[in-house]
Design a protein that fits this description.
This protein has one domain. Helices cover about 50% and strands about 5% of the residues. A hairpin with a 2-residue loop joins β1 and β2. α2 packs across α4. The chain is globular and about 35 Å long. The protein starts with 10 loop residues before the first helix and ends in a 15-residue tail after the last strand.
Amino acid sequence: MTATVNDQRTGREVVGEELFESLAHFVAVHNGQTPERAERIADQAVAFLVTVATATVPMVPSDDVDMGLHALILHTKEYAELCEKHAGRFLHHNPRPGGGPRDPKLVAASAQAMKASGFVVFDDLWTVDGENLAQCDSDCGRPYGQA
């Protein structure tokens, strides 16, 4: 039997246990998520942020991942440090004025960009209106990190 090496990274590995646990706890408490789901959301939020730094496509999170991004942003010192380390600049939160639905094509492209960057992607957290957008093989709101 041969062993395979899984070279995919996780958001948890990027930030370390202390910050990761704080993010997951925040998502669980403030967004009513189970601890297990909150951990997965926190993981995807960190992976999303790191991918934004080098993405060549507009990055738009799913609703689930956005919960994790808000938790990360509220850890202001750590968020600023992550931005500087991975993007070389502060990545501003860029909500769509007046709200409105997320563009499914941009959300799907974001999940694909994360996969291309070597991150584990939890497909079930990448949905819009119940439609899973992370499983397509192609690159099928406003982009994150731009002013």
